Amino acid sequence: MSAGDATGSRPIRVLLADDQHLVRTGFRVILEVEDDIEVVGEAADGDRAVGMTRALRPDVVLMDVEMPRVDGLEATRRISADTDTPGGPAVLILTTFDRDDYLFAALRAGASGFLLKNGTPEALVEAIRVLARGDGLLAPDVTRRVIATFARPGGGSVVGTSPEAALGDLTPREREVLVLVAGGASNAEIAAALHLGEATVKSHVSRVLAKLGLRDRVQAVVFAYEHGVVRPGG
């Protein structure tokens, strides 16, 4: 499915939130050459990002972490909890700081993706398309750190769902889907593995997220490793 399909016939609407004007300009230059992406606004601090999200209803917010007035993590919390913008937008955290505390705080705040600013323009564009489709995204090295942290005893928690009650609500098929999601499989790959249609897989994924009280596939990966549904190397 193309990004255009994910948001109807219109382009993916993106809001840029970064306190550095040159950084925002660079992101705009990268994104505006893409036919399926439209930059709808820029915010220089987290408070402004929250307000512009409510006003502009973007599909994806590119969020810096360290910004004046309100930082990107708090802005992400407010956007995720905002009942005026149900179901979105997806927040993609972009930072120059490769720090685990930022990563896990971003996941707890409700971010759907986390990338470092030293990545390629192509990776940024693809990340936006992935989030616009409703999927979560972590850079491969970030995924390894998440797994390493949450797979070990006492590794912490991103989501507050009671695992026993929530997992007990899953059907055997939904549990299979959760295992494949935790392995990084796309809907198409899950469909092929389970001999299902992609629309059916999408419905299963949505029900899994709803039953577990999770925001997106990123939290599903964390949940699955944290609660032993899957294990590293398994």
TrEMBL record:
Domain Response regulatory: 13-132
Key word Transcription regulation present: yes
SUPFAM superfamilies assigned to the protein according to its UniProt record, in alphabetical order: C-terminal effector domain of the bipartite response regulators, CheY-like
Superkingdom of the source species: Bacteria
GO molecular function: DNA binding
Signal peptide: none
Positions of the HTH luxR-type domain: 163-228
InterPro entries cross-referenced by the UniProt entry: CheY-like_superfamily (IPR011006), NreC/VraR/RcsB-like_REC (IPR058245), Sig_transdc_resp-reg_C-effctor (IPR016032), Sig_transdc_resp-reg_receiver (IPR001789), Tscrpt_reg_LuxR_C (IPR000792), WalR-like (IPR039420)
GO BP, sorted A to Z: phosphorelay signal transduction system; regulation of DNA-templated transcription
Entry-linked CDD domains: LuxR_C_like, REC_NarL-like
Modified residues (4-aspartylphosphate): 64
Protein keywords: DNA-binding, Phosphoprotein, Transcription, Transcription regulation
Keyword Transcription: yes
Pfam families (UniProt xref): GerE, Response_reg
Protein name (database record): DNA-binding response regulator
